[in-house]
Specification:
With 218 residues, the chain is mainly alpha-helical. It has one domain: Orthogonal Bundle (Helix Hairpins), CATH 1.10.287. It contains four helices and three strands; from the N terminus they run αααβββα. A three-stranded antiparallel sheet has the order 1-2-3, with no helix packed on it. The longest helix has 89 residues. The N and C termini lie close together (7 Å).
């Protein structure tokens, strides 16, 4: 009787081990995919931050250059008007004509200064806009990667559950549970063994039954 009963027990153990290994493999695969997607998401977010920081540095450089150019222009205008005054005085030019020449020089300098500031602001805006669009696209993709990671974990959990349930079903349908000499009696809600009743409502409960020492069954 022992020989006849050993094979069903070994088959059940092999089925349980195979199902467990497959379920673990599915779990590990889900975790691995999730980590990979999280890595991609983190990488995208780092790139987005780098782009924004680079844009800030470029804007600072543009604005600083515009400020230096405006200062140089102011100094140049001061020298120019000084030279104009000296030249006109030497030539005996004064009054309204001299004032008009000086005023014209100042007005042109103001236009040049305004143009410097305008160009700097346009370049700064363009730099910030480009950086914002690139960073936004990267962060949007990072969000998609994180979602894909969660979905991979969820799919792996479903696959693992299906494998465990399938394994439990195979075990319950094995010869070990069909052999009359083992004293199993499925009442729908309980399994009676050795004078004790075991409540069975889920496959997990059946798995607990399988934890009995097979050597004691013969």
């Amino acid at each position: 009787m022992c020989v006849g009963g050993v094979m069903p027990v070994m088959a059940v153990v092999a089925t349980a081990a195979s199902g467990g290994m497959m379920a673990y493999g599915q779990y590990a695969e889900g975790q691995s995919k999730n980590k990979y997607y999280q890595y991609l998401a983190d990488q995208n977010e780092r790139q987005a931050s780098d782009i924004e920081k680079t844009a800030e540095q470029q804007v600072t450089l543009v604005q600083d250059k515009a400020a230096r150019d405006a200062k140089d222009l102011k100094n140049s205008v001061a020298k120019t008007t000084g030279a104009q005054k000296a030249t006109m005085a030497a030539m005996g030019i004064s009054g309204v004509t001299a004032e008009d020449i000086i005023t014209d020089t100042f007005n042109k300098a103001k236009l040049d200064a305004a143009n410097l500031r305008y160009n700097a602001d346009i370049e700064s805006w363009s730099t910030n806009k480009g950086a914002s669009e690139q960073a936004g696209a990267l962060r949007s993709q990072a969000t998609s990667f994180r979602f894909a990671g969660k979905e991979a974990k969820r799919a792996a959990a479903l696959d693992m559950t299906g494998t465990l349930l399938g394994t439990a079903g195979s075990i319950l349908g094995s010869d070990l549970f069909k052999t009359k000499g083992l004293g199993y009696k499925n009442t729908g809600q309980k399994i009676s063994y050795g004078g004790k009743n075991y409540k069975v409502t889920t496959p997990t409960d059946y798995n607990k039954v399988l934890q009995w020492n097979p050597g004691k069954l013969f």
